[in-house]
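Researcher: Let's continue the batch. This sequence belongs to Mechanosensitive ion channel family protein, and it's 290 residues. Same format as the previous ones, please.
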Amino acid sequence: MSLKTHYFEDLMIWIHAHLTKPELIASLFWILVKIALIYIISRIIIKIADKAITHMIKARDKSSLKIDVRRSNTISILVHNLIAYTVNLVAIMMILGQVGLNLGPLLAGAGVLGLAIGFGAQSLVKDIITGFFIIFEDQFGVGDVIQIDQFKGTVEEIGIRVTRIKSWTGEVHIIPNGNIKQVTNFSTYNSIAIVDVAISYDADLDRAMDALRDIVAKVHESNDNIVKAPEVLGVQLLGNAEMKIRVIAECKPNSQGAVGRILNAEIKKHLDACGIEIPYPRVITSAKQE
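Model: Same format as before. Here are the structure tokens for Mechanosensitive ion channel family protein:
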């Protein structure tokens, strides 16, 4: 008889002696049942969580506080992954406990490893956490015009780790979310265009203000960016050679620059047509005759 055949016979004898015991079979059966129940319950929890997340996102989309579809999808994916990872980790630990594995040393090793990773990746963790709250709290969205420190531009992408904004001159600034301390959002509410119109002291003030009211009313009718009738507030400043009359116009978010330029051009044309002088520096030269 060969050595290999001898080992095979010994193995069969051991299996017959131990695995055919009713107590052992019953124990293995209940272990398998418990593992199956743990797996099924974990799947059910994840499914219920997914349905709850979907319901919350739909409810928020229908509310007065709107967020874009991309942001809603990002939030739902983040929360789903967080719940799925947590439930799966707990399920794996419970299954390992059922097969008799001592989880104490495993948990201790995982804690030490997590601590080492945490110290080595503090900035990365900070970026991810900040990015999550930027998306969840709806601080700004894709297409908004914002300013972060000295960088101002249109948001092109909000990631979990970085935010990309494009300036009006074409530069793309990539800013780690952990470095975002303060944000100014220019796209949340309507903006105000301010135009100061200088007129000569010799001009009739009341006539000049009436002319301004007429022209800003016409600009309001022809410009969709102006959401409210512009106001001629009155004399803002008495200068050395001119009076300045302030005109304000409430307009759509981040359109105050374009509206201000249109108002300046139309006011200049209308004042010229009305014969109202806009003062400008003059140089008078006198020749002394001997």
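Researcher: Any comment?
Model: The chain has three domains: 3-120, 139-185, 191-274.
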